[in-house]
Amino acid sequence: MQSFKSTSILRRFLQKSRLVSQSRSFCGVSSNVLIDEPESTVLVEGKASSRTAILNRPHALNAINYSVASRLMKLYKNWEDDPDIGFVLLKGNDRAFSAGGDIVSLYNLLKQGNFQDCKEFCWTIYSLIYVVGTYLKPHVALLNGVTMGGGAGISIPGTFRVATEKTVFATPETLIGYHPDAGASFYLSRLPGYLGEYLALTGDKISGAEMISCGLATHYTHSAKIPLIEEQLGTLITDDPSVIERSLENWGEIVHPEPESILHRIETLDKCFSHDTVEEIIDALESEAAKQDAWCVATLRKLQETSPLSLKVSLRSIREGRHQTLDQCLRREYRMSVQALSGQITSDFREGVRARLVDRDLAPKWDPPTLEKVTDDMVDQYFSRLTAFEPELELPTQQREAFT
């Protein structure tokens, strides 16, 4: 992941002048419209040579809905095209960065029969993630608090990600009958060994210290220093990522994962999660659990709580992501999300959200209920091209270089 960071910086800024000239029509948005917009879900702070976007839905842990995603898209396009703005910061208001996409809103839309708005939300946030991943100016995300799902999606593809002792990262989508999306199959598949498979299938949480250790974060600092970082960055007049990196390093701390961290179990993790199928992964975990391995027992318990179909779909998604660029991952994930939200293959998404976030009985009835009843055709359908009535996700790859 460290090479992921450095190559992305090199790609963006050595070719900056060429790409800016090609993307003028894509980025042109009236700044007056944005300043006067009454929408309060994303607040804006202006500094000498930077702008800060503040996710402002603290009551929902800054969960991202269509309003947030579309406003961020407008802001980012405008800022990218403004020669007076050198770089962009993204942070969350209050105790969370972002808990992810507002899945309860999606659930309610589906109950109302409003599938179209669900697709528009996915289209918008996936397009935003591609903009972040190909942004022509340095992007700094301050991950001080819960950073999950779509919240990770709009930050990890960017240039810099600052974690703290309050950071909690996870991609818990299999627990609600869904799949890690919002670019997760791109960045999880590039983690050391088979850590990405583990995080994708179990939905397990990791800390800020673990994020910096495995490369999901680029810097680590204590949360008390975040205001000092913002103050120093606010004085910079630059678009040079190396200058911004030096500023972040002034407040950086060396930190190590706790003794019980999953990163200290990477050998066992790789041994179990390197297999080709979910069934083989479970067999390997059971074999290790028989040796009185408490971690394997706990991991098996986590997998038993998830949707069997989601497990198989998610494993295939991570494996395919290893060989795909960011835009290819996002196109495939959009296809998968349309299939999942449509309910044509299974109603697991609605059932998972109901059980965990609406009724909160924590007793989802998965369909199919077991791995044995998940057919290859079901999994294949998630990855199949959409029909002529369901257009594929379009991304501006001709104007913006694909992220590899």
Automatic annotation (TrEMBL):
**Any single Pfam family the record assigns to this protein:** ECH_2
- What EC identifiers does the entry list? 3.1.2.4
> CDD domains, per this entry?
crotonase-like (cd06558)
Q: What does this protein do?
A: Hydrolyzes 3-hydroxyisobutyryl-CoA (HIBYL-CoA), a saline catabolite. Has high activity toward isobutyryl-CoA. Could be an isobutyryl-CoA dehydrogenase that functions in valine catabolism.
- Family assignment from sequence similarity: Belongs to the enoyl-CoA hydratase/isomerase family.
Annotated Enoyl-CoA hydratase/isomerase domain ranges read 51-383
Organism, scientific name? Solanum pennellii
Keywords noted in UniProt: Hydrolase
Superkingdom to which the source organism belongs: Eukaryota
Give the enzyme class.
Answer: hydrolase
User: Which pathway does the database say it acts in?
Assistant: Amino-acid degradation; L-valine degradation
Q: So what does this thing catalyse?
A: 3-hydroxy-2-methylpropanoyl-CoA + H2O = 3-hydroxy-2-methylpropanoate + CoA + H(+)
Any idea what this protein is called?
3-hydroxyisobutyryl-CoA hydrolase
NCBIfam families documented for this protein: PRK05617.1
